[in-house]
Amino acid sequence: MSLNRSIREEFPLLVSNDVAYLDNAATAQRPACVLDEIRRFYENANANPLRGLYALSVEATSEYESARVAVQQLLNAAHPEEIVFTRNTTEAINLVAYSYGLNKVKQGDNITISIMEHHSNMLPWQMVAGKTGATLTYLECEKDGALTEDAIRNNIPDNTKIVAITHVSNVLGRTTPVETVVARAKEVGAVVLLDAAQSVAHMRVDVQKLGVDFLAFSGHKMMGPMGIGALYGKRELLEEMPPFLTGGEMIEYVTRTGATYAELPHKFEAGTVNAAGAVGLHAAIDFVNRIGYENMEERELLLTRLALDGIKDIPHVHVLGSEDPHEHCGIINFTIDGVHPHDVSQILDSDNVAVRAGHHCAQPLLAYLGVRSTTRASIMFYNTEEEIQRFLKSVSTVRERMGYSE
Ligand code: PLP
Q1: pTM (whole model) above 0.85
Q2: Ligand 1 centroid vs 26 CA: distance in angstroms?
Q3: Pick from 242, 179, 241: which is nearest to 211 by CA?
Q4: Ligand 1 centroid vs 118 CA: distance in angstroms?
Q5: pLDDT class for 5, splitting at 50, 70, 90?
């Protein structure tokens, strides 16, 4: 698929600004339809959802709940009440750690996470292990991010209660063989939480097909607004979990001494909800469906291949992860001999190329790979070949501009 001009024109920032935006793994750009929907909601339907009995509040509630159905369909969840709106992936994972982890895990149990986890899917499990006395096992990957069947089997021991794993690594771009992880977890009776922060924006994710028990993602990485994300949880698990946060909107009845809680999913959505965020996320999901995952994947693969082919010819540049563009999900993370990634990023910025530099909230993985920080370019279908060429040209001049004479 060549980039349809009208698609590119859907992104006001990309139209008005000449930046080659290659930090999509941190947050994507928003198409006009998402921005328009947020504005329309506030102009036409703004009221506190789930509270008022008057028409405007009923309308706000209906828009909020129809966004939930859109997420349910996106993930192919069996029931809308299996979708809980959160602020982001981080909050969704914390919800499961506090509500499920602290209540179900005991001393003598094990929790397995992979060494590739973002800190958001690592610190909550360190907390649960620390508070319960459970062990925390790291599922080691190969240097290119591959998770072998042996590693999966050996690092999910029989006493495992939770396996929390990323779907796509935000450092290497590698996709986890979820079916193999789920099969082993089921053998030992563990639940699986999938961190889909880096996958939902790029590939079709079907919770029933994958067989995961929980899944977390953020709206802002798939062109929705910041401040809205979602947790998927199997209904029977969510039903037996206590609330994570308490307060308004999550109760049936309150007395001086206690309360009974609302039904799913409202039990987990305390306080005024981010209805405009949910409406914006709904618009982003519609947009993704209009373009089609197949088209997005094809386009991202083409751009990734272009970037990987070009970068491997540049001396002193080392790309992390596999050599196969299929194993990058648009993420190209690299180091340049003798140049700090912060300098790389500043030089690229002076050429109007926006990339991320640092530890990418994955310090244990970087330590395992033997690097302290790296530069990361991350691609979305709306990037252009010209932007990739600009990125490559800029990278090829970095050492010279830092004073090296080759
Ligand atoms: N998990 C992964 C794999 C990520 O890449 C990120 C963000 O970069 C997160 C979790 C956290 O996402 P958020 O900051 O939206 O909660």
Answers
A1: yes
A2: 8
A3: 179
A4: 7
A5: low
